[in-house]
Amino acid sequence: MCSIYFLLLAILLPCCFEILSLSCSTVMKDTLRYLAGIAGPSGYGSKTTAQQVTDNSSSPLHRLTAIITGATSGIGAETARVLAKRGVRVVIPARDIKKAAELKEGIENENPNVEIMLFEIDLSSLASVKRFCTQFLALGLPLNILINNAGIFSQNLEFSEDKIEMTFATNYLGTCTLLFFHYHNLE
Ligand SMILES: NC(=O)c1ccc[n+]([C@@H]2O[C@H](COP(=O)([O-])OP(=O)(O)OC[C@H]3O[C@@H](n4cnc5c(N)ncnc54)[C@H](OP(=O)(O)O)[C@@H]3O)[C@@H](O)[C@H]2O)c1
C-alpha cells in the first residue's frame, strides 16, 4: 500500500513542479514585458500614453460623457486631461473640490473649449456616493464611459463613517455602488 503512495507521489510531484515553473515563467515574462513597455494583445503597453491610445481611437470621442473618479492626481488627472482635450464631457467627482477646481483650471488653460463638471464625492461613504449618483442622474446626461480609477491603500487600520475598513470601503464598496448605480445607464 505504502509503495503505491510513493509511486503516485513520484508521478505527481514532477507534474506539480512542471506546472509551477510554467506559471512562474509566465508571470516573469509578463513582468518583463510590463517593465520594458512591450505592447500586449491590445496593442498597448505600460509605456503607452493616454494621448497615444486616443490618437488611435477609431470611434469619435466628442459628445461622449465620462465619469472619472480619482481625477485630482496621477493617472486619473492625465486621463481627464486627455479625454477632455478629445472632446469628451468629463465629470469629475472628487472629495477635494479645491484640488479638482485647480485641475479643471489647468486643463481649461490648455484647451478653452473643454467641458468639465465637478461634484463632491467621498467614495468611502455610501451616503456620499448615493448623493453624487442622484445629482448626476438629475442632469439627464448619457453616461458612455465610467472610469473607476480612485483608490487608496490605507497603511493603518482606519474605519469609514459606515464603520467599514477604509481601503475596502473606498476601493470596493464605494466604487461598486457607483458602478451598480450607473450600470443600467451606461450606453
Ligand atoms: N500608480 C501606480 O503605479 C498604480 C499601481 C497599481 C494600482 N494603481 C491604482 O491606480 C489608481 C490610480 O493610481 P494613481 O497613482 O494615479 O493614484 P493617486 O495619485 O494616489 O490618486 C488616487 C486618487 O483617488 C482619489 N481618492 C482616494 N480616496 C478617495 C475617496 N475616498 N473618495 C474619492 N476619491 C478618492 C484621490 O483623491 P484625493 O486627491 O482627494 O486624495 C486621488 O484623486 C489607484 O486606484 C491606484 O490604487 C496605481
TrEMBL record:
Entry keyword set: Oxidoreductase, Signal
Signal sequence segment = 1-23
Give the InterPro entries listed for this entry. Answer: NAD(P)-bd_dom_sf, SDR_fam
Lineage: superkingdom: Eukaryota
Q: Please give the Gene Ontology molecular function terms for this protein.
A: oxidoreductase activity
Q: Does the keyword Signal apply?
A: yes
Whether Nuclease counts among this entry's keywords is no
Q: Which PANTHER family match?
A: NAD(P)-BINDING ROSSMANN-FOLD SUPERFAMILY PROTEIN, RETINOL DEHYDROGENASE
Family statement: Belongs to the short-chain dehydrogenases/reductases (SDR) family.
Q: What is this protein called?
A: Short-chain dehydrogenase TIC 32, chloroplastic-like
